[in-house]
Task: structure prediction
Amino acid sequence: MADERTVKVRVISARYPPEKQANPALIFGMQDKAKNVHPGAEQANGEIWFECELRVKHDAKNGTLNFLGDFTHGTPTQRFIYLALGYSENGHYVGIKRWKIHLSPLTWTQVEQAIDRSATLQAKIEGTRAASVPLLDDGWIVV
Result:
């Protein structure tokens, strides 16, 4: 039987992508399953924070986690979050590129710690090069 919990997740981009720096009219945000892009909150230090809540199912038999929600993409065992860059054309979002932030490095212990402490699971990326991106510093942490 799978245990399900809800956890807050934050992805931090260390800076805007170069394209957005050159053209502030571009849209940079967290992409949901409906392909809507939700802007982040720019911090005083130039970082951009993106936050959402995800449901997490834990299968105690095999130890796997399955992240669920409007902002998860991929297969049940290889979930990820997208940050996307694009523009609006006639009221519709047109994508240019995406950053894939993998959730698979997260553990059930981290999920439980975040919930027990009313904390957030947080990861930081560089924000300059798209595709599957490496996490900076210590990867996913509880803050």
